[in-house]
Amino acid sequence: MIFSIRTTVGQESLVADMLKKKLDGEELNVYSLTVIPGLKGYILIEGDNEITIRRTINDVPHVKGKGIVGGEIKIDELNSLLEAKPLMHTLKAGLKVQIVSGPFKGDKALITRVNETKEEITVELLEAAVKMPMTLKAENIRILQE
Questions:
Q1: First-to-last CA distance in the chain?
Q2: What backbone phi and psi angles, to 5 degrees, belong to 13?
Q3: Which fold has domain 87-143?
Q4: Which CATH code, of 3.50.50.60, 2.70.70.10, 3.40.50.2300, 3.30.70.940, is assigned to 2-82?
Q5: Could you give the residue ranges of the DSSP H alpha helices within 9-146?
Q6: What pLDDT, in 10s, does the model give residues 54-63?
Q7: 30-76: per-residue pLDDT in tens?
Q8: At what angle do helices 12-25 and 50-57 cross, to 10 degrees?
């Protein structure tokens, strides 16, 4: 049985680590903990029943409210979240992105060119006084949903 657990946004990995440490010390039938990058404020936990999951998340910091959201999740409902999509096929000129590493970390930019063979993109910073093209590895950006 798979359940979604509501956490503090940005603390999903920390909660998963704390749950793993708790599970190492106790004999609970929890089979997996999953943090999905595109799913902020939630982690997925698989166990034998809801009581086991509630016992696992009890007294863990950053777990919001009662913890379990909704009820059991069917694996078919998760296919779109678990399916790996090649990043280079989703990038195109005119797309807004955020730089996630390097000296311009956190800045928003606009893609002007995509080089699929080198897996590089050329961007211009949106908030810069002078528009200057920069070439980055595609792994250093995150697509903004707007």
A1: 34
A2: -65, -40
A3: SH3 type barrels. (2.30.30)
A4: 3.30.70.940
A5: 12-25, 50-57, 79-82, 87-90
A6: 888 888 888 8
A7: 999 988 877 788 899 999 988 888 888 888 888 886 678 877 777 77
A8: 100
